[in-house]
Amino acid sequence: MERMSGERKARLTEVLLAEKRRLWSEVRRELFDTVGEELRSQYDIPQDVGDRGLIDTLEDTGMAVADIRRQELTRMDEALGRLEEGRYGFCVECGAEISEERLRVAPYAPCCVSCQTRREGPPSGPGVTL
Ligand SMILES: [Zn+2]
C-alpha cells in the first residue's frame, strides 16, 4: 500500500479536526440550547465538561439525537485513529488515495469517487441485475 505523505496527512488531520470541532459545537448547542438550563442543572453539567462527560450525559438524557451524535463522534474517533495509523483516506475498494477535495466534503467516505459511482451502479433500468 502507498504511504501517505506527511503533507497530505497534515492536511487531512486539519480536515478531521475541523469536522470534529464542528460536531462538538453542534452537540453542545443541541444539549444546552435545545434542552437548556433545566437539563444542565438536572445533570449538573459544567460548562467545561470534557468530551467523554458530554457523551455520557447525552446517553443519560436518552434524547433521540444522542444516538446519532454518538455514532458520528465514534466514527470521527475511528477516522482519526486510522489517520494516525496512516490508513485513512484510502479507498476500501481499490486502495487508491481518495482525493482531499472529496474528504473535505465527505470526511467518512470509505471509497474513491469512481468506486462509489460503481457501487451505486448505473441508473437502474430494465435488465440490470446484480
Ligand atoms: Zn476506489
Automatic annotation (TrEMBL):
The keyword Zinc belongs to this UniProt entry's keyword annotation: yes
Zinc finger intervals, dksA C4-type: 91-115
InterPro entries documented for this protein: DnaK_N, Znf_DskA_TraR
Domain Zinc finger DksA/TraR C4-type: 86-120
Keyword terms: Metal-binding, Zinc, Zinc-finger
Protein name: TraR/DksA family transcriptional regulator
Organism from which the protein derives: Geobacter benzoatilyticus
